[in-house]
Specification:
By secondary structure, this protein is mostly helical. It is built from twelve helices and no strands. The radius of gyration is 27 Å and the shape is extended.
Length: 285
């Protein structure tokens, strides 16, 4: 009798624990679009991220940083505490997802996902600075670590469907985009090498090497044309004109691929929306 009662209590405790974990997970990942708690949490985190990015930008203004250094520091401390707690809760509740269901290996798999790495990088620089006591030290090392705080801007990607659509399109079209990028790199190397041999005798200081010629090739193929390096020989000008025309065509290829990917993704989303309840977001049978 006592063993049965103890088993019932243990079962009830585990059930409560799992239900709390699932609720935390639903809030953090916004499982249901109309969940008010999840929407409020998402709005709070987005606001905090925007304020953090603004603080990083304003700290580069010396007069503001000197006047409000303590405010910036304590705001950073409070933000890191909030983001750290969020990271811990995400790591704890990720086992609700079947992909990370194992209590150890599932959490390790989650920890190396892109969004989890962004969450970690966004808070990691604060701890060595606080541990080393370099709150007011302005060294190159400290400035480099502080720049990582801008990674918090990427945390917003999980709260906007537009970013999620872009990520899915890039994953779907990655092979085509990689092929197009490879073609661009090959042509850049070949044409820059050709331009080097054409122009080096006329402009040895401008086309001193193939890497120097590649700077001209990049600015020409992208149709930017800074004007600091340009061909002066007749042959060089002809090759330059050909590269400019090729650049327009080559850089239009990835744009067309992405446009096609967006059209396919939006069409797929319309089909999914018809199969989901507009109120709770659950799939309809």
């Amino acid at each position: 009798m006592r063993e049965t009662r103890r088993t019932t209590i243990d079962s009830g405790g585990r059930s409560t624990y799992e239900s709390v974990k699932k609720r935390v997970h639903d809030i953090l990942v916004i499982t249901y679009p109309h969940d008010q708690a999840a929407r409020a949490f998402g709005f709070f985190i987005i606001t905090l991220i925007v304020l953090n990015v603004m603080a990083v930008i304003l700290q580069t203004v010396k007069s503001l940083n000197d006047s409000y250094e303590a405010v910036f520091y304590y705001f950073e401390m409070a933000s890191v505490i909030i983001f750290s707690v969020e990271y811990l809760f995400r790591s704890w509740s990720c086992t609700v997802d079947e992909k990370y269901s194992h209590p150890l290996w599932g959490r390790l798999r989650y920890a190396v996902t892109p969004l989890a790495l962004i969450d970690l990088i966004a808070i990691a620089p604060f701890y060595p600075l606080a541990f080393l006591g370099v709150k007011t030290v302005d060294t190159t090392f400290v400035r480099a670590l502080r720049l990582f705080r801008l990674m918090r801007l990427f945390k917003t990607t999980r709260y906007f469907q537009s970013f999620q659509i872009l990520a899915r399109v890039l994953r779907a079209k990655k092979e085509q985009i990689l092929v197009a990028a490879l073609v661009v790199v090959i042509l850049l190397v070949l044409l820059s090498s050709l331009m080097y041999f054409i122009e080096r005798s006329a402009q040895p200081e401008k086309f001193s090497s193939i890497p120097a010629a590649m700077w001209w090739g990049v600015s020409t193929m992208t149709t930017v044309g800074y004007g600091d390096v340009y061909p002066v020989t007749v042959t060089g000008k002809v090759v330059g004109a050909i590269i400019s025309l090729l650049g327009i065509a080559l850089f239009a290829m990835p744009a067309g691929m992405l446009a096609s990917g967006f059209a396919e993704e939006l069409q797929a989303r319309r089909g999914q929306q018809r199969r989901r309840c507009p109120h709770c977001g659950r799939e309809l049978e």
